[in-house]
Specification:
The chain is of the alpha/beta class and 251 residues long. It is built from 8 helices and 7 strands, in the order βαβαβαβαβαβαααβ. Helix 1 (16-27) crosses helix 8. The longest helix has 29 residues, at 104-132. The chain is globular and about 50 Å long. The chain binds nicotinamide-adenine-dinucleotide. Residues 11-12, 14-18, 36-38, 41, 61-64, 89-92, 113, 117, 140, 142, 185, 187-188, 190-193 line the site of nicotinamide-adenine-dinucleotide.
Length: 251
């Protein structure tokens, strides 16, 4: 689990999985750039990191906006001198609906954040990592990127796309000392999960049982896996989609 880099960027770090991962990086002595559209939540993450003795700064960034993403990478390098690890985690869920009921608006919203956002972040992170000669990127996919997700077709498509971007980038930069992997969580206890339960309480009640372990995951369990993928111990691992799912996809 040794992390020899110095600086990490985490998008969507104002809460949930992103915040837990930002905290985990900071605990390992990594300086963290906390990026999000939610300034209040982002500032809270920075305060939590500082209270624990770590170093972090909040940068407001909408991952759909090319200029803001470009600026995020530039600010990271100006502030802390490098960009060694990136966790492209910002993502949104969709309302439960069958494919034939979907709208253009919802399709565009999901694809903009979950696919265009990850692509844009990778584009500018990779430009810097190529100059630097090293780096490790982890993208937030999902078990919905590995198979069907009934009533969440566009979300599933967006997470399949994240894996397409991850695997292809892994090959393109394999000889450049840059590794690119993805994390595929099942349901994790975050605000996103709470919203899904509120949308359909019946489905919400059944969710823990969909996991062979009989429970949903904890944010710290995802953070630990992201740090592993960034660590020197994963030095020969690239293009991998790591499932962290309480056994869900083993069934
Ligand atoms: P969350 O809703 O708790 O947090 C997501 C964060 O992303 C929020 O802080 C939000 O402000 C930020 N964000 C949203 N749109 C943004 C944008 N355009 N630019 C920058 N930041 C933006 O979600 P979470 O549960 O922590 O999920 C994090 C990631 O993990 C997502 O990509 C999600 O799809 C994925 N995921 C979550 C689960 C789960 O069950 N929670 C399961 C599998 C995958």
């Amino acid at each position: 689990m040794k992390l020899s880099g110095q600086v990490a960027v985490v998008t969507g770090a104002a809460g949930g999985i992103g915040r837990a991962t930002a905290l985990a990086f900071a605990e390992e002595g990594i300086k963290v750039v906390v990026a999000d559209i939610n300034a209040q939540g982002g500032a809270e993450t920075v305060s939590l990191i500082e209270a624990a003795g770590g170093t972090a700064v909040f940068v407001s960034c909408d991952v759909r906006d090319e200029e803001q993403v470009k600026q995020l990478v530039a600010t990271t390098v100006e502030t802390y001198g490098s960009l060694d690890y990136a966790f492209n985690n910002a993502g949104i869920e969709m309302e439960n609906q069958r494919l034939h009921d979907g709208s253009m608006r919802s399709f565009d919203m999901i694809m903009d954040v979950n696919v265009k956002g990850v692509w844009l972040c990778m584009k500018y992170q990779l430009q810097h990592m190529l100059k630097q000669g090293s780096g490790a990127i982890v993208n937030a996919a999902s078990v919905a990127g590995l198979g069907a997700a009934p009533k969440m077709a566009v979300y599933a498509a967006s997470k399949h796309a994240v894996l397409g971007l991850t695997r292809t980038a892994a090959i393109e930069y394999a000889r450049k000392n840059i590794r690119v992997n993805a994390i595929c969580p099942a349901v994790i206890d975050t605000a996103m999960y709470q919203r899904v339960c509120e949308m359909d309480p019946k489905i919400g009640q059944r969710i823990p049982e969909l996991h062979p372990m009989g429970r949903v995951g904890r944010v710290e369990e995802i953070a630990a896996s992201v740090l592993y993928l960034c660590s020197d111990g994963a030095g020969f691992t690239t293009g991998h989609a790591l499932t962290v799912d309480g056994g869900m996809t083993a069934v």
